[in-house]
Amino acid sequence: MKRKGLYYSIIIVVALSLVFVTVRYQKPQQNNIKIGAILPLTGDIASYGKSAQNGIELALGQLKIDSLNKIKIEIEFQDSKGDKETAVGIMQKFATSDKYPVVIGEAASSITKAMIPIATSNKTLQISPISSSPDLTDNDYFFRVCPSDAFQASISAKWMFEDGAKNVGILYVNNAWGISLMELFKSNYKSRGGEIKDVEASNEGDKDFRTQIVKLLNSGINAIYCPTYGKEGGLILKQLKELGNKFPVYGADVWSSPELLATAKNAAEGIKIVKPSELSSNSYNSFKSEYQAKYKIAPDVYAAYSYDLLMILNQAFNSGAISGEQVKSFLLNMKVYYGVTGPTKFDSNGDCNTKPFIKQIIKDGIYTSAN
Questions:
Q1: With bands split at pLDDT 50, 70 and 90, how would you rate the model's confidence at 2?
Q2: If DSSP states are collapsed to H, E and C, what string results for the chain?
Q3: pLDDT at position 30, please?
């Protein structure tokens, strides 16, 4: 009987040892976190939304095979179509019915601005990889991984003034992004001694800008500043050329979108723009290689911002932050995150001003450095 008891004891010990070894070397149990993303996946500014989605999904794929990652993030992507009412309706559902702790979006600053009150009232953390209007600063539950346009406007004003443009006309898009960039540019440009000869507004989706262009060209200008979206910008450049414009034209960061060149074609030759700095590091080069392998195109800066955004959220979730309030607290107190876009650190307003800008000029249909 003693031998039989000893035999059973040995079996139990071995079995428990095997269980211990199995548990010890299992992949950490994952907790599911579901969040929303509202992006323009169709429509005139779809290139921004698709870039963002691609960057996010690339990050998701890499996190799924990370053996140390404790969190499985699920994202419900919804198409805003670049339409404010559509985006607000989706945000209302995400924040109140689905109760997602975090919503990624939007691209257009005017649409993002319309979504923010819903995020704030429901304590839903809203974070954008693209929206850059200074009007979005200082909202309790809004963060962004891209820099504010306050820096872009200052660089554009300085560049134009140093190029000898002392009398400028402005044609801007009449929304939150365009208005704030126009006003910041005016302030910076005037402080340098320049004169604003004429300011003309346009709307998203406009196709005919000839009336505004004629007013600009007859106002005594020697340069044009044009913060509009890419597709409208392309049409403006074509119509400027048709109307015989000889003055240099300067655009904003979104003129680096595919829509500008596709619409303007050779009318874009010589155009100057200020945009977020192009990236070059080992981590970015690795990201770029994997992105190209997956999507068969090169990533733009918004894809890279979106990739870093998802990685930062993953850190927050792995820290135990699962509500909008907890994620907000994590972002405000986190150390500098070094990702494919370089250092990311949020200030008390949710802004990330650790990203540089560069100057570029279009030559032979290619964006080249103007620094």
A1: very low
A2: CHHHHHHHHHHHHHHHHHHHHHHHHCCCCCEEEEEEEEECCCCCCHHHHHHHHHHHHHHHHHHHCCCCCCEEEEEEEEECCCCHHHHHHHHHHHHHHCCCCEEEECCCHHHHHHHHHHHHHHCCEEEECCCCCHHHCCCCCEEECCCCHHHHHHHHHHHHHHCCCCEEEEEEECCHHHHHHHHHHHHHHHHCCCEEEEEEEECCCCCCCHHHHHHHHCCCCCEEEECCCHHHHHHHHHHHHHCCCCCCEEECHHHHCHHHHHHHHHHHCCCEEEEECCCCCHHHHHHHHHHHHHHCCCCCHHHHHHHHHHHHHHHHHHCCCCCHHHHHHHHHHCCCEEECCEEECECCCCCECCCCEEEEEEECCEEEECC
A3: 57
